[in-house]
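Milestone 3.1: sequence recovery, worked example.
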């Protein structure tokens, strides 16, 4: 399980930075000849971004990309990222940031979406009440709800 998580995180990091030059002889588990995964990852990231924009999440916030990547990681390997610590550490590798900054950026983004009424949009998008109006969800609750909603909406 840990090997799969590391591969997914390494691929996402490579996509996010794209300036990394991998020269022959360099140690990397990414097979650059097999580029089919790049299109799949980019398509999934676009779908996630579309749903986040429907939630009225502001794309200029640093937490937007972190939230997008967190939902992406949850969709790609749902079992591995049930633990917030593992998820935040993986996002820290992708964004080259500390655990606490990742958590606070995500919290700011979630609160901003909650304050603008964007979380009510999730209820409309998914056709059921998934978010209570009284208190904002935790970071992990929102990430899981969005991931499950995207899986459900895109498959069926």
């Amino acid at each position: 399980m840990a090997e799969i998580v590391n591969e997914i995180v390494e691929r996402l990091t490579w996509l996010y930075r794209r300036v990394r030059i991998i020269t022959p002889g360099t140690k990397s588990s990414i097979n650059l000849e097999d580029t089919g995964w790049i299109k799949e990852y980019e398509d999934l990231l676009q779908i996630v971004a579309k749903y986040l924009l429907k939630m009225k999440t502001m794309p200029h916030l640093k937490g937007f990309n972190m939230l997008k990547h967190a939902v992406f990681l949850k969709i790609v390997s749902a079992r591995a990222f049930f633990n917030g610590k593992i998820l935040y550490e993986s996002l820290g590798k992708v964004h080259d940031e500390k655990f606490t900054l990742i958590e606070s950026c995500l919290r700011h983004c979630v609160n901003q979406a909650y304050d603008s009424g964007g979380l009510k949009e999730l209820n409309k998008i998914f056709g059921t009440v998934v978010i209570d109006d009284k208190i904002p969800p935790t970071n992990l609750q929102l990430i899981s709800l969005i991931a499950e909603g995207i899986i459900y909406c895109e498959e069926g």
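Residues 19-30 have pLDDT under 50 and may be disordered. The two ends are 28 Å apart (CA to CA).
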